[in-house]
Amino acid sequence: MNRQILEQPFGPEQIKQREGSFGKMLDYIEGHAVIQRLNDAFDGDWSFTMTKYEIMKDTDEVIVIGQLNADGIVKSQFGSSRITRARESGEIISLADDLKAAATDALKKAATLLGVGLHLYRNDRSQGGYRQQSTQHNGSSRNSGGNGNGNSFPAGGNRKSGNGNGNGNGRLTSNQYKYMMRLNDEQGRSKADLDQQCLSMFGAAAEYLSKNDASVVIQQLLTH
Predict the structure, then answer these.
(1) Which domain covers residue 179, as residue numbers?
(2) Residue 58 to residue 88: CA distance in whole angstroms
(3) From CA 108, how far away is CA 77, in angstroms rounded?
(4) Which of 27, 78, 121, 179 is 20 to 30 A from 189 (CA-CA)?
């Protein structure tokens, strides 16, 4: 593993921007840039597998668990994407593309665990927090992102963190909370059981987790 290559900051020309919520500009790294970084660091000897996926009809999104394997190291992460529908009919345009978008989202997150793009997190935290671009699609068009799938890599911003564990990535989304509760119920567990798990792992009840911490809990629920 070449950590120097993995952790090398991305150049300004590789950091893209799009307008996010409340008119704020969000920075992101495209998926192909992350793939190229992995190729450079591992001489192409790495693989990524979507180990599990679920289509969430109640929240109109797809959720995947992806596994990055490189140099004997395995990193797993959660990824998601909104289901893209035609504006007029509301019909699903391409579920395969939506799954691809969620998989790319998971790959990018897994790559951060190897150091790819960590400078973006450090820069944001020095400003008091960071933003993460939404992976939602609007109608039949897709936002710019890696491999044309509209996903982003977290980067610059100064939105304050939520009431989670204080790690700077903001409170979990309502969709994350609903999905976490659904998985918990399917396993026959009570809300108290889930809260105890969250408290032991992150020192906060389920509804007060950060986005990243909620993703970790969801991964555990999916794999148990």
Answers:
(1) 164-224
(2) 20
(3) 9
(4) 78
